[in-house]
């Protein structure tokens, strides 16, 4: 997933995706704690995807709050 794809989504879609990513991160943490992890790099990918989604959401919020001249 890249930022360009995220910018094309609506804020509601981004919030849904953020919730899904957070659930996945939670499950991955449990897998890591119980030594059931197959792909350890997935934790890093999910964390970065969460940050990417949050960044785009904040950009959209800032753009919406800015008064139009």
From TrEMBL:
GO cellular component, one term: cytosolic large ribosomal subunit
GO biological process, one term: translation
InterPro entries assigned to the protein according to its UniProt record, in alphabetical order: Ribosomal_protein_uL29, Ribosomal_uL29, Ribosomal_uL29_CS, Ribosomal_uL29_sf
Organism: Mangrovicoccus algicola
The family this protein is said to belong to: Belongs to the universal ribosomal protein uL29 family.
The entry's keywords: Ribonucleoprotein, Ribosomal protein
Name by which UniProt lists this protein: Large ribosomal subunit protein uL29
Coiled-coil parts of chain: none
PROSITE patterns tied to this protein: RIBOSOMAL_L29 (PS00579)
MF terms (GO), sorted A to Z: structural constituent of ribosome
SUPFAM superfamilies: Ribosomal protein L29 (L29p) (SSF46561)
